[in-house]
Design goal:
This protein has 449 residues and is mainly α. Helix content is 50%, strand content 4%.
């Protein structure tokens, strides 16, 4: 028993000495080689290590490596079809300097570990691009000096958006150039523009943000357009006098969306602290606006949809012929569609039917409502239209009552009722064509108009 214990202690001692013996052996071996040989080996080892590290960094920076994770493939696919498909990933995503590069690689490594271990901190990969990366030499260094540009018909200037405070916030390049458009990489989404320009602008007294001419070019003028805006421009008439409801949606932030990223109740409960929320989501982090906000769409709605949800909610039967006449449809004898020019420009009921003092809806059209867009004589012209059409309708009704049977007699009766109930002044040109067709039917039946 004593012998076994002694042998065991001796074995433990030999194991303990082994690393030191090996180190001593190594030093003896190196001493034999000489210091020049030793220096050469150390240099070769350092150089080989550096090459391996550089190759590793380069390989892990390639789009192919990034795309090896299935959650990254949509981003790689959108990058391949974008205008940045010749730009290396790290050019945009690496932070400035050597420390920034190492920090970026470390962040990517942590994502890689999360991917292979199945421990996801977020529901999707999360990367941020600093403004200095976008504005560096060889990229968009002169973007702030380019001045105003045309973006899908909108006059846009990068300088005030990136250098000034917008709605109390300092914007970043990625505030507008985001990844929320499926299949497109760093694309500007007009929904983001609409969210800033239209959300709560009236409640906050920021109506200048929604001023059409702040972004859009001057409205069309001349004889070859549906409506000549020369008078409007000369008198500085607000576009919304006629063009109302140019955006749809409220941009609401729903509390349930917070849970996509946050799990702590304390964070979610601060949803109403706008200063805190926007500081962390816009200035300190690149969070797409529409990850939190419901969208606001900036577009001209169909007049029929506006009237249907507004006026016809109570007066559907009464306003149906008015809407048909305004759209230039509904007549049986005049098949050609002839919408009113105001209909084509997006003017809705309340563009004219409103109280000039309160701005609320009104069944009566006050003569002062016309003058912002038309000359003062226009209201007199409208009154003449009303009188002339009333006289023509009365004559046709009398002739229609006297006329004998005809194939299109019921069609003529229908069209005459459409103009009478729809109000010919809602579309004088179409009403004139319809009444001419009715008169033609009466003449063919041997009646006199």
């Amino acid at each position: 028993m004593k012998s076994f214990f002694t042998q065991f202690i001796s074995a433990v001692w030999e194991v303990f000495k082994l690393p030191f013996d090996l180190i001593g052996l190594g030093f003896k071996r190196m001493w034999v080689l000489g210091w020049q040989r030793i220096l050469m080996l150390i240099t070769a080892a350092v150089a080989l290590t550096m090459v391996v590290i550089l190759l590793f960094l380069e390989a892990t920076s390639q789009p192919g490596f990034c795309g090896s994770c299935h959650i990254m493939r949509p981003y790689i696919a959108s990058w391949q079809t974008s205008t940045h498909n010749n730009v290396h990933c790290m050019v945009c995503h690496a932070r400035e300097g050597l420390t920034g590069y190492i920090e970026t690689k470390f962040t990517a490594l942590s994502m890689l570990v999360n991917y292979f271990t199945g421990i996801y901190k977020r529901s999707k990969p999360w990367a941020e691009i600093e403004d200095r990366n976008c504005l560096q030499g060889g990229c968009h260094a002169t973007r702030l000096l380019d001045g105003k540009i045309d973006f899908t018909g909108v006059v846009f200037d990068h300088t005030p958006h990136l250098t000034d405070i917008r709605r109390g916030r300092k914007l970043r390049c990625t505030s507008c150039h985001s990844q929320i458009v499926q299949g497109e990489h760093l694309t500007v989404t007009t929904s983001t523009c609409a969210l800033c320009h239209f959300k709560n602008v009236e409640a906050e007294g920021r109506t200048e943000l929604a001023d059409c001419r702040k972004c859009h070019k001057s409205p069309p003028t001349g004889r070859d357009v549906p409506y000549d805006h020369t008078w409007v421009l000369g008198n500085n008439i607000n576009c919304r006098t006629c063009h109302q409801l140019m955006w749809q949606g409220s941009g609401t932030v729903r509390k349930e969306r917070c849970g996509v990223c946050h799990s702590q109740t304390a964070h979610i409960e601060r949803i109403d602290d706008l200063e805190f929320i926007h500081e962390w989501h816009i200035e300190k982090r690149k969070v797409d606006c529409l990850m939190c906000h419901d969208p606001i769409e900036h577009q001209q709605p169909k007049v029929a949809a506006v009237i249907g949800s507004d006026c016809r909610a109570c007066h559907e039967d009464r306003h149906a012929p008015i809407l048909a006449l305004y759209e230039g449809i509904g007549a049986r004898l005049a098949a050609k569609k002839m919408p009113n020019a105001m209909h084509e420009s997006g003017a809705v009921c309340m563009s004219c039917h409103k109280d000039p003092f309160t701005g609320n809806g009104s069944a009566r059209v006050d003569k002062n409502v016309c003058t912002p867009c038309h000359q003062a004589s226009y209201f007199k012209l409208a009154e003449e239209w009303r009188a002339n059409f009333a006289r023509r309708i009365a004559q046709l009704e009398s002739a229609l009552h006297r006329m004998s049977s005809h194939t299109h007699k019921e069609d003529a009766r229908h069209d005459l009722a459409l103009v009478k109930r729809g109000g010919a002044w809602h579309n004088p040109h179409y009403a004139d064509e319809v009444l001419k067709s009715v008169a033609e039917v009466i003449s063919k039946a041997g009646g006199n108009v």
